Amino acid sequence: MDVLAFIALAVMPVLVVVAGLHDLTTFRIPNWIPVSLAAAFVPAALLIGLPPVQIAVHLSVGVVALVIGMGLFALRWVGGGDAKLIAATCLWLGLGSLAAFLIWTAVFGGLLSLALLSARKYIPFAPGAPQWAARLLEPKGGAPYGVAIAAGALMAFPHAPLFILAASGG
Q: Please, which residues have CB within 8 angstroms of residue 127's CB and are 6 or more apart in sequence?
C-alpha cells in the first residue's frame, strides 16, 4: 500500500476515534466529524481503486443507515450525532462489514453501559474531577454511545471491502 492510499484509508479510523473521545468528554459529536467522514469517502475509494459499483453500494448503505438513524433519533433512542456517525461509518464499511460493525457496536455499547452503571454505583463523586468525568458518573446520566460506535468501527474496518482492496495493493 502506498503512502497516499494509507493516508486516505487512515481518515476513517482517526475520525471515529476523535468522535468517540469528543462524545466521551462532551456528550456531543460535532457535525464536522461525520461530514468529514462522508466527504472523504469517495476520494479515498477512487484513490484506492474501489470499483464504481462497489462505491454505489457503499453510498446506498450510508443513505439507508442515515434514514434508519433519523428514525431512531426521532424516537429518541439515539442522539443526532450518533445517527450521523453511524451513517458516515456505514458509508466506509459498506455491506462487507456492516454486520460485524453492528455486532461489535452492540457489544461495546453493552460493555460501556455496564461500566457506567457499575461506576455510577461504586465510584463516589470526586471533588476536583474533570467536569466530563463527573457528568459520566451522574446517576441518571446518558451514555456517550459514540465510544461504542468508534470501537465497533475499528473492529469492523479491517473486514471492509475498501480496506481489503487497499491491503491487497489494489
A: none
Please write the tens of the pLDDT for every residue from 145-154: 999 999 999 9
* 108: its cell numbers: 461495546
Instruction: Please say whether the beta carbons of 61 and 90 come within 8 A.
Output: yes
Whole-angstrom distance, CA of residue 73 vs CA of residue 25:
21
Q: Which three cell numbers stand for residue 92?
A: 466506509
Integer angstrom CA distances of residue 81 from 74, 77, 139: 13, 12, 22
Q: For the chain, what are the domain ranges? A: 3-167
Q: What is the C-alpha radius of gyration for the chain, rounded to an integer number of angstroms?
A: 17
* CA distance linking residue 161 with residue 169, whole number of Å: 12
Tell me if the pTM is above 0.70.
yes
Name every residue whose Cβ is closer than 8 Å to that of residue 16 and which is 6 or more positions away in sequence. 37, 85, 89, 149, 150, 153, 154
